[in-house]
Design a protein that fits this description.
Elements (H helix, E strand, L loop, with lengths): L6 H10 L14 H10 L5 H14 L8 H34 L2 E5 L2 E5 L19 E3 L8 H4 L19 E6 L3 H18 L2 E3 L2 E2 L11 H4 L2 H7 L6 E2 L11 H4 L4 E2 L8 H15 L1 E4 L13 H14 L4 H15 L9 E4 L4 H7 L7 H14 L1 H4 L5 H10 L7 H11 L7 E4 L6 H11 L3 E2 L1 H4 L2 H5 L5 H13 L3 E4 L4 H12 L5 E3 L3 H8 L6 H11 L21 H4 E3 L1 H10 L1
Helix pairs in contact: 6-11, 12-21, 17-18
Length: 576
Amino acid sequence: MVELRHPSSSLGSRVASSPMKRDEDTSPLIHDHFSQHVEDHPRHSSRDRERSFWWQTYSFSPFSKDDPRFSQRGSRISLFLFLFVAIAGFISIFSILHRLNSPYLCKKDGIVLHCPRVKEKPSLWENPFAATTSWKPCAERREGGISAKVSHYFEHSADLPPENETSGYLFIHAEGGLNQQRIAICNAVAVAKIMNATLILPVLKQDQIWKDQTKFEDIFDVDHFINYLKDDVRIVRDIPEWFTDKSELFTSIRRTVKNIPKYAPAQFYIDNVLPRIKEKKIMSLKPFVDRLGYDNVPPEINRLRCRVNYHALKFLPEIEQMSDLLVSRMRNRTGSPNPYMALHLRFEKGMVGLSFCDFVGTREEKVRMAEYRQKEWPRRYKNGTHLWQLALQKRKEGRCPLEPGEVAVILRAMGYPKETQIYVASGQVYGGQNRMAPLRNMFPNLVTKEELASKEELAAFRKHVTSLAALDFLVCLKSDVFVMTHGGNFAKLIIGARRYVGHLQKSIKPDKGLMSKSFGDPYMGWANFVEDVVITHQTRTGLPEETFPNYDLWENPLTPCMIITETKLQLYLHSE
């Protein structure tokens, strides 16, 4: 890591190294005192002798002190010097204040980041302004064709057809919930670009948990999607008519590429998938969850994925309008404009069971959870004897979902008052109202979309579970503060999108490992706990950070999809 010296520290060093204040009896500006000093001390030091020389030179000047010409000229010189010093001082003070209140650029792990010179007053509702103004989105910029920018990254790039032609048709199933499907769509566009293939509009596959039959056009604006990406990838709405046996794409192994490794490099698609597309003309990729890497693909491809995610994929207008209505109601719940927090609470029964963590509960609850885990995940459950040690290890590593009560204590330690308006995005919480009671007691202004909107208003969105998830997504995205309690694509995509628009919005990611240690310490007082929480989370609020290797593209798009502003870069390069 390359660290730059903080300008404030250099200022401090300059102050510390400034010359010591001279004693009054040696000041050459006080002439009367100097005369007294000469009479009292016949033996002079070298400094005194030097000062005497200049005094004598001054005394024998053509203009004596009693000469009126000397008085007038001296007054003019004094006035000039006074004005010069005053102007210089004013400019210096203004420059110093400007530098102290403006951010500067620093390097961390080879990337230029924005660092504040002085601490701003902490805010509960937004990140420090000085730390969030250097970076701006650049995913909308197109850097030219694949032949010029992408093909040189690959071996055998000569096998790629010209850009005005196509290798064949690519078809994918977007599996999982809404947000996993969103990532799959972004990856599908990127893979089609890599192979210069025509992308057939992805099918949103029914998920075993969501059990939803939503189509692409039920959630996203298809026309905008196709038109926005027309200069990047050719996209068609349906399988071409000349391909008669459409069911073959869903069932036939001859038309399916199934051996794609997770986080595959771009070169894999050139070597293994492109030849089959050119041979068969239409191929499907299955499964297609996380089948494209991040730091092993060309930068232009990562930028294209951001372009799809943040610009091409738009929800239907009716979903956007309903989310705006919910946001407006959240901001006016107190009778006057108020900020609000969005809390993604991941404590559904399925999440609790899948985590294999141990949680507070009665003996009967623990027995029922053990039976549920044994039924749903028998191969992981085995005989259950190893689960207690596994649960302790996972909690120590911060891999367990936060309970509602734990979330409440952390938020209160951060300083959020009881009156805070909180929008809760969650499924049915495991344990029901009893489990939610600590959170609701400490923050009574908790609401969900079902409490903000009437049944009639939500009726049109209940046809598709993903439509309801889209409403939660947008209300959380537009909140003043977003708080996640466990991992997952929902939280990652929201944090990434909030970073992409400028890092000013707080997106709090609790350090669950450190918090579990604090929660388990019976001797830690409230004051020490508050200090731990505040210090730990100062930098876990969605500030600018390098993307790889600690983040994926969806949670932190900074490195490939954002650019430092020109003026800030010039200042940084000049300082180098």
